[in-house]
Amino acid sequence: MPLIYRSMYNAGGKPETGPTGKALGARPSDIAVDANGNVRPGTGGMSVTPAWRLMAGLPHLVPRRLRSMIPGASGPNRLAIWRMGQGPFIAGPVAGKLALRPDPSKPLVHGFVEPDQEMTFADLQDALGATRDQWTIDET
User: How many CB atoms lie within 10 A of CB 91?
Assistant: First the structure.
């Protein structure tokens, strides 16, 4: 399983779930959803990065409390930097029904956690939410 990072709201020591850019989930605009509500591999998903310091280019995703490490960090302190996995940032399984696909336009700094097979958008959200206990805060 690849090592991935994401900035998400902290909800009692676990990532908050939901279809937003700062939660454990995907927005409908992050992935192609067809007329039947289905999503497929290779069409987008939840954004992740291989190292949290790569978020320096997106200071609104880094909590202000981390300004000493990321100058200009401007995200709310309710955000936390979460990590999951331990392997190289390469295409492959992440968890049940989910796979990592490095972003073809910037494969060393960004990727998508997306469905590994056709499923409904709701099932994608459920699969992402099912990883909630696997995420750990890592801001070192």
Answer: 11
- pLDDT by residue, tens only, the chain of 140 residues: 999 999 999 999 999 999 999 999 999 999 999 999 999 999 999 999 999 999 999 999 999 999 999 999 999 999 999 999 999 999 999 999 999 999 999 999 999 999 999 999 999 999 999 999 999 999 99
Domains of the chain: which residue ranges?
Answer: 4-23+38-137
- Single-letter code of the amino acid located at 105: S
Reading the block at residue 30, the tokens are 């992050």
The predicted model scores a pTM of 0.96
How crowded is the C-beta side of 96, counted as CA atoms within 13 Å? 9
